[in-house]
Request: fold
Amino acid sequence: MTTLVHGSDTLTRDALTVLQPGFVGTTAPDWLLRRIGEGLSSVGLFGRNIVTPEQLTALTAQLRAERDDVLVAIDEEGGDVTRLEVKQGSSFPGNYALGSVDDVELTRAVARELGRRLAQCGVDLNWAPSADVNSNAENPVIGVRSFGPDPDLVARHTVAYVDGLQGVGVAACTKHFPGHGDTNVDSHDALPRIDVDLATLHARELVPFRAAVAAGTKAVMSAHILLSALDPHRPATLSPQILTGLLRQELGFEGLIVTDGMEMQAVSATYGIERGSVLAIAAGADAICVGGGLCDEDTVLRLRDALVNAVRTGELPEERLADAAARVRALAVWTQAHRARGAGSVPGAAVQEGTAPGADIGLVAARRALRVTRGERPYTPVTSAPYVASFTPVANFAVGDETPWGIAAELERLLPGTETGSYDETTADTALAAAGERRVVAVVRDLHRHPWMIRALDGLLAARPDTVVVEMGLNEAEPRGALHIATHGAARVCGRAAAEAVVGTGA
Reply:
């Protein structure tokens, strides 16, 4: 169906069109603007590119001054993974919190408000939502980014999230196809594999993606995972059986297939980013995401030239590259039409919590997601400045270590004078010494996954039974403490809701 126009200029332009690179800085560098003029059709934004809503709006306007149809993408899941509020923590709880409430209208409203903020700032492609079924509680990279372990629950909330985003003109990119939930390896670090049969994959991993395709998701992001039942040799991002055979032909998806970051070790360590990109396009991907780590002009040129050379040597059919480029342009047309209609805008509204209609929906959702369990003894709310002991695991790459989490800042707002300490691989004695006579609030994250954290918390509770425990990751461990609060995520609003419960105004 794609009409080919042969020639080196067309080939080079198509190669640039399928790239979604990142860059460094809060304004667009000259090299990026120059490549947009030459055909680069997408730009990916990360936390390093964003300071304020006003600055982000100016940045996207700068990009579109070069060409109005450029796609501006971002990895804004809300919850633990935020780029809009990377320095403050998100105004929206993540998927696990929304799944725990299990109100699809709430999920749709959260996604709509998040999408409205993106649209106001000129962002029109969101690499979200995560449709992974988190069937493995030991998963180090998905966890609270998933709506939960039940395929049907994940499916209905994925659909609501897609509807919310796309209803305000922001294209959803449902990820990580065909499902990253049953892994115990982070694909940023190595190649995960899932060794289950086809029946399990169809009954579990694929259920939310079928639903998202049926709901009209504009894009799907591939996962760098090996599913031996589908392709025992190549990860999904590089597999024709998975991207073309399963996603295109069996599931009937006609939108844009975007790769996960090509510099991730699951692909780059074995294939390199150049060959990996060629194999991905040949397998059926349409857009190459790169820029989380490699974010300079040289990376763009290396990938452009690798694609052009692959066509010239016959390794990559020209028709496949042209088709991929056409799908990128088709999505750009859709987003451009929504911008022209002003979708997502609220005249005079700032992109800050509490200043626009529905802007407090994130806090409403975070409060509803709390699960509060009282201990055997009567609970006395914390009324004087406590000591917050945060037991901090190593952050995965997707979340990063820039974004603050916990409840100390919110408790300080309610109880001035609150003190805090962050502990990694520590014992209870250290935290107890720092706490002195203050009431202790212990904050944990995925307690069930970290033996050192369990030992430290047990020691703390043995010495101070009135300790409040706040779990901000997966709520898999048994509740303990005088008061146990499960937030189902570590977003800023989750911390605020938990702090209210600690002092007795929200429990």
In short: The CA atoms of residues 16 and 301 lie 9 Å apart. The longest strand covers residues 171-177. The chain is about 40% helix and 10% strand.
